[in-house]
């Protein structure tokens, strides 16, 4: 199958963020970057579908400045066939502005399946995938935690709801955004990393839409009080219950 | 002053709590303006719709069809977008629930505008909507300004507490803007989890079990504690959902659910950064772990170093006793 996977480059979350002098972005000094979690699941899902069906071609697409080349190379080293960078100076916050650029690239690409992550772990918007589907007029399933595409014509998926799950069926071509549960991303092998160096990485200008949503301030949430151990063993239970009643007032 | 449309979510023929929350958020933004609600469901849902008047909707549009018995995103998003245009609303408010997050971006793209997702607060600032939206797994809070008109906003479950306004709503039937039976994406089944249990997004108290519980059957320990509180839901870490002890939908964290209850009790949970990402905004955090170096203690308001199998049954009894004496 001809599959496209849209991936975003995001900071590693395992840090204490600082706010940049502008007050509207995080300070990127010293941050490490990688493929957004759910996009890794989407890349793996694409690989597994084509491994199962045999043949096909997978294209990874990432919109952003030249630093995204590293993220696209990682996708290639996982086994993805080719990569496209949609180049812009900075990634806008507005998902619709991004979606328009991605849709312009995906349109006419004759993809059977276009995969997204459920959400990008930095913006947490969960909007770009279904917006692209609307712009392309394609059927769309969001947040699939199980995906079964065994023929070029249709697929089924499972979605997790609050305290329930639902199953859906859909025709191809389609847009699907991937939740955790579908596939855990593989680590690139040494052979994969070598092969990636020779794979095509095309750079094109991003045709971003005009942004109507902007970040006007970023700040750190109020600090939690430092943790407190109140005691050891089951004998501490009465003290805990007292604190829950008198201090936290939740009991 | 402007008029807003709120999408009121129903499941299995009943309005969900998030339906009232969406109306409440719309009312807050509307100032003195009108709030109308729209609800989709199988025939019969109209009988439930008037209840939305209690939190501020003056009119509820009801779109009834057998093909709306389950989530029907293509027909619902087409109808919402058409109604926003026809009614001239300043904006449309959805819940950032699983279904709301699925619908909101479709509606925004149909209207040709960007959207604000999963907001925890929102207000009008002149002609713009200004909203708070946690980013970077909740480690940073962004203030976003939305200049689009109409605006599309999804609100985080639990962030807007429904407040009774004493109002009442008229109910009006509305036809779907697209044939709901002709949608390409079809929801073919809905498997309800344990309906007797509270949902993670709605429960004021969450008791989460981690790998420290050692086996699926030992989750009885945390279930009993949740039952003792009476208003608690049970969550899980990824280690636990990976092992199949609990369903993926119970997972709390960076790649699971983001929750913010009044009380969060972590039992046998190490407190990995990806887990903390989903629960660090809880009001009070209790940790029970036998390793005093476990990172969960760094965020716990009250930590007990001890064996869950000894501490939790005692806590369950003490909670039962405390509630009996209230
Ligand atoms: C990309 C990515 C995304 C992730 N997303 C998530 C996510 O969304 N949610 C999530 O939870 N994790 C997530 N993880 C996994 C996370 O890193 C941890 O592996 C996981 O949270 C650990 O779960 P745990 O605390 O149950 O298990 P462990 O880390 O194994 O901890 C078990 C704890 O139980 C304690 N213990 C053992 N026996 C007892 C006893 N008898 N009594 C009391 N305490 C006891 C131990 O001291 C230990 O602290 C993610 C990881 C990655 C890489
Ligand atoms: N800059 C980008 N480049 C490529 N894909 C993106 C970009 N931003 C978002 N996406 C895709 O859209 C998904 C949802 O992102 P979001 O709407 O920001 O939560 C991500 O998981 C990616 O698959």
Fold and architecture overview:
The complex is a heterodimer of chains A (251) and B (326). Chain A has 251 residues and is α/β, with parallel strands linked by helices. Chain A has a single domain (2-205), classed as 3-Layer(aba) Sandwich (Rossmann fold), CATH 3.40.50. In chain A, 26% of the residues lie in helices and 30% in strands. Chain A has helices at residues 37-53, 68-78, 95-106, 128-136, 190-196, 237-246, and strands at 2-6, 9-11, 33-35, 57-64, 82-87, 113-117, 140-148, 154-161, 164-171, 174-178, 201-205, 213-219, 229-232. In chain A, strands 9-8-7-10-6-1-4-5-11 form a nine-stranded mixed sheet, with helices on both faces. In chain A, strands 2-3 form a two-stranded antiparallel sheet. In chain A, β7 and β8 (154-161) form a beta hairpin. The longest helix of chain A is centred in the first third of the chain and has 17 residues, at 37-53. Chain A starts with a strand and ends in a 5-residue tail after the last helix. The model of chain A has no long low-confidence stretch (mean pLDDT 96). Chain B has eight helices and 18 strands. Chain B has helices spanning 17-30, 46-49, 73-87, 98-111, 219-229, 238-242, 273-279, 308-324; strands at 4-8, 10-11, 14-15, 35-41, 59-64, 91-95, 115-119, 121-125, 128-135, 140-146, 151-155, 170-173, 186-192, 205-209, 232-236, 263-267, 284-289, 302-305. In chain B, the strands form four sheets. Chain B has a seven-stranded parallel sheet, sandwiched between helices. Chain B has a five-stranded parallel sheet with strand order 15-14-16-17-18. A three-stranded antiparallel sheet of chain B has the order 8-9-10. In chain B, a hairpin with a 2-residue loop joins β8 (121-125) and β9 (128-135). Chain B is elongated, with a radius of gyration of 21 Å. The interface between A and B is large, with 85 and 100 residues. β12 (213-219) of chain A pairs antiparallel with β10 of chain B. Bound molecules: flavin-adenine dinucleotide and adenosine monophosphate (AMP).
């Amino acid at each position: 199958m001809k599959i496209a996977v849209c991936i975003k480059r995001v900071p590693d979350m395992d840090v204490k963020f600082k706010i940049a002098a502008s007050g509207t972005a995080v300070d990127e000094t010293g941050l490490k970057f990688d493929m957004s979690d759910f996009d890794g699941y989407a890349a793996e899902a694409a690989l597994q579908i084509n491994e199962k069906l045999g043949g096909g071609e997978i294209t990874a697409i990432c919109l952003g400045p030249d630093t995204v080349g590293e993220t696209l190379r990682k996708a290639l080293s996982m086994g993805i066939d080719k990569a496209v960078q949609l180049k812009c100076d900075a990634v806008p916050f507005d998902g619709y502005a991004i979606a328009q650029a991605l849709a312009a690239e995906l349109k006419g690409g004759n993809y059977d399946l276009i995969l997204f992550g459920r959400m990008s772990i930095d913006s947490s918007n969960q909007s770009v995938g279904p917006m692209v589907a609307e712009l392309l007029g394609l059927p769309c399933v969001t947040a699939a935690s199980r995906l079964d595409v065994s023929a070029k014509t249709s697929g089924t998926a499972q979605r997790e709801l609050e305290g329930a799950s639902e199953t859906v069926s859909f025709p191809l071509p389609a847009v699907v955004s991937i939740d955790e549960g579908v596939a855990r991303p593989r680590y690139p092998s040494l052979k994969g990393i070598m092969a990636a160096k020779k794979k095509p990485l095309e750079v094109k200008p991003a045709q971003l839409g005009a942004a109507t949503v902007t970040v006007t301030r970023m700040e750190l949430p109020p600090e939690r009080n430092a943790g407190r151990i109140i005691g050891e063993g089951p004998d501490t239970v009465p003290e805990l219950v007292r604190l829950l009643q008198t201090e936290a007032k939740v009991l | 002053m402007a008029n807003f449309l709120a999408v009121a979510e129903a499941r299995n023929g009943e309005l969900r709590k998030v339906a009232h929350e969406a109306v409440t958020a719309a009312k807050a933004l509307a100032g003195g303006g009108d709030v109308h609600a729209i609800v989709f469901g199988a025939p019969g849902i109209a009988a439930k719709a008037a209840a939305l008047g209690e939190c501020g909707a003056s009119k509820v549009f009801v779109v009834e069809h057998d093909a709306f018995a389950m989530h029907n995103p293509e027909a619902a998003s087409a109808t919402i977008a058409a109604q926003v245009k026809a009614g001239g609303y300043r904006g449309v408010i959805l819940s950032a629930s699983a279904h709301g997050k699925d619908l909101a971006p479709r509606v925004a793209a149909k209207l040709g505008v960007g959207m604000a997702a999963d907001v925890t607060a929102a207000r009008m600032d002149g002609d713009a909507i200004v909203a708070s939206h946690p980013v970077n797994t909740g480690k940073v809070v962004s203030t976003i300004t939305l200049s689009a008109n109409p605006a599309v906003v999804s609100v985080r479950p639990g962030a807007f507490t429904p407040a009774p306004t004493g109002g009442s709503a008229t109910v009006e039937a509305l036809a779907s803007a697209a044939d709901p039976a002709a949608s390409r994406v079809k929801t073919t089944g809905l498997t309800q989890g344990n309906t007797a249990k509270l949902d993670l997004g709605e429960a004021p108290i969450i008791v989460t079990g981690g790998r420290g519980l050692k086996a699926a059957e030992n989750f009885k320990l945390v279930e009993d504690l949740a039952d003792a509180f009476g208003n608690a839901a049970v969550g899980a870490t990824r280690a636990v959902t990976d092992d199949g002890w609990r369903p993926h939908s119970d997972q709390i964290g960076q790649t699971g659910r983001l929750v913010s209850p009044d009380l969060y009790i972590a039992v046998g949970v190490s407190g990995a950064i990806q887990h903390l990402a989903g629960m660090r905004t809880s009001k009070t955090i209790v940790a029970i772990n036998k390793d005093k170096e476990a990172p969960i203690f760094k965020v716990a308001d009250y930590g007990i170093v001890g064996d869950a199998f000894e501490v939790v049954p005692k806590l369950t009894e003490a909670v039962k006793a405390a509630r009996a004496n209230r």
